[in-house]
């Protein structure tokens, strides 16, 4: 039997491991020169826009909402198909989450439904680029401009993705990335926020460290409530090593995604009733390779049978509005039917840069066996 193939695994090279060891020996292990260098390189990649790093992608979005002044009485529109963090940050700042259903093909928030959900209290939109696939960015920013809304892009999965040839993050409003262990590049845990100007960047620094401003030689001042969200130099050393691999990683993922399509063939959907992801090789970084299962097999059954064949399958995501916390806010079944159907049947096949084409083939063979009987 083949060894277990997980759905995701980070690729950390020896140079990165050496850089972490060097940082550990350097005498400076919290935020310091490595964080500064990581932020500098990220900013360069994002076309010179200011970038600040944090200890998660979640707090990154929370801080963006705080900088935008969003809180009690404000509505923020987002998708029900994401990691729960996306909606939790809205509650965290005291605002009201408003969900808009997804597009069944892209599995991202449906921008028609975003427009329909806008009220006089709407202050921001948090779009999510599921599997790294951007929404229609032109349309998103047209809607935001027309209704004077802030955008906090949950680009947690989208580093390396592009729109009209430009990296996601190099344009737009706030853009938040995660470097959690499963993401395309990682710092083990961490995130970064791309901001619009120096003033916002200064606020981001305050919010990430207790609201402290350093003023003059004689001390500090605290004028807003901040938290403890800074990235360590150990994490930044991993991030620098990973960032150097970004193009290699994205290229390999695109190659693997193409191989999934080629191996499954053009009749796969008709034969099995499963639905493939959109074949977007222009913009998507292929953070995940997700299929929607036909209704005749349950997700749990599919995952268990694939595990018996030594293949790990991921689940991204359960619809957020059906979690108890959100039901308690008044959300219930039937409100977002596409999200509920897709959220019930969606699975993530193995997809990571250290995989090879025979891993893809093995997954396809196993999956077709499971779907055929
Ligand atoms: C990973 C992820 C997050 C959260 O990032 P953390 O770094 O784990 O806090 C938020 N949204 C999406 C879509 C994600 O994939």
Concise summary:
The chain contains 14 helices and 13 strands. The chain has helices spanning 14-25, 33-45, 57-67, 85-92, 111-117, 137-147, 198-208, 233-243, 246-264, 268-272, 299-308, 324-327, 337-345, 357-372; strands spanning 51-54, 75-78, 96-99, 122-126, 150-154, 162-163, 166-167, 174-178, 191-194, 212-214, 220-222, 289-292, 346-349.
CATH H level, superfamily name of the largest domain: Type I PLP-dependent aspartate aminotransferase-like (Major domain)
- What is the CATH architecture term of the largest domain? 3-Layer(aba) Sandwich
Q: What letter string, H or E per element, gives the SSE order?
A: HHEHEHEHEHEEEEEHEEHHHEHHHEH
Q: Please give the share of residues in helix.
A: 25-40%
Give the count of helical stretches: 14
Give the strand content: 5-15%
Averaged pLDDT: 97
N-end to C-end Cα span: 21 Å
* Structural shape: globular
Which molecules are bound besides the chains? pyridoxal-5'-phosphate
Provide the structure class: alpha/beta
Query: Which fold name corresponds to the CATH topology of the largest domain?
Result: Aspartate Aminotransferase, domain 2
Unreliable parts = none
Q: Which CATH top level class of the largest domain fits?
A: Alpha Beta
Number of structural domains: 2
Total strands: the figure is 13
The biggest sheet amounts to: 7 strands, mixed
Q: Trace the largest sheet across and list its strands.
A: 1-9-8-5-4-2-3
Please state the CA-atom Rg, rounded to the nearest Å. Answer: 21 Å
